[in-house]
Amino acid sequence: MPSVLITGASGFLGEHLAWRFERAGYTLYLTYSTQIPRSQAQGLYHIDLSKRGSLSSGLNDLASVDIVVHTAALADADRCEEDPLLARAINVEGTREVAQWAAYHGVRLIYVSTDLVYDGEKGMYTEDDVPRPINVYGSTKLQGEHIVRDLCASWAIIRLSLSYGPSKGKRGDWTRRMREDLAAGKDLYLFTDQYRTPVYVEDAAEAVLRLAETAATGIYHVGGSERVTRYEFGCTFARIFDLPMKKLHPIQMKDISAKAPRGRDCSLVTEKLSRELGICPCTVEQGLLRQKERESRGF
Ligand SMILES: NC(=O)c1ccc[n+]([C@@H]2O[C@H](COP(=O)([O-])OP(=O)(O)OC[C@H]3O[C@@H](n4cnc5c(N)ncnc54)[C@H](OP(=O)(O)O)[C@@H]3O)[C@@H](O)[C@H]2O)c1
Question: What is the whole-number distance in angstroms between the Cα of residue 10 and the centre of ligand 1?
């Protein structure tokens, strides 16, 4: 049976990856930091990537695996902006330790990066566009990419768009709060001038699995098939989950000040994903309907 080490398995994406790799017959080795993952794993490892040496000591009884998927990160852009030293420790130096571990064991590494490596001036980015991060989060994730490329012989990087989907984990995705607020009758203010290509998380997990099963080296964009604003996404979300649409209010980025600057349009072109890996990500409506159906079956 093939085996996979997934870092950050207690996170939103990690939870889905563990589930997808398990279903594909992999033996799971999972890391977490503060929340214990809900998954059947052969090995569960507590590591703190903000502390040097934590990875190697945490994994010292793990001889090797067939593949490493590195998702663990300080993934909250505003927190990264507030604490750039912590962001650097986890996202840059922590990634270096993961890449060193993979290189030492001669194991292929898949690193999950972000659409926020782009500045958002152009939109519909292809893998050939030059990244130019405008916040600490994007900058630390891009430095992580460089480390992976420098240290590992076999690697793939996915630049992931904003992801959404069901979750049983403590963290959940960014729509969880939106749903709770709308269900509680609160007003929600969403941007009409910030574009992304939101991706349903099971499509993202499928992309990672395919990359694990090929020898392809390179960068892959993983986004949904539709470029939408947060407001447009929110309206579809409210309609599908039967939440009060009148509580959604359109605003522009200039109307509020966020700690971390965000690009205006970080949408991704995913033609390479379809051509090379055979994955055609779904639209927002299709993804939310899949989410609803999975939740009705108690995901
Ligand atoms: N979700 C998105 O929309 C999105 C979009 C683009 C890129 N990404 C990338 O995808 C990856 C996963 O994102 P996510 O949304 O699943 O994030 P998440 O839900 O916040 O999960 C982050 C994971 O990293 C772990 N972690 C955090 N600090 C750590 C530390 N000091 N040492 C070890 N592990 C630590 C967390 O462990 P505990 O939970 O146990 O504390 C958790 O398992 C990240 O690399 C992120 O940059 C996500």
Answer: 8
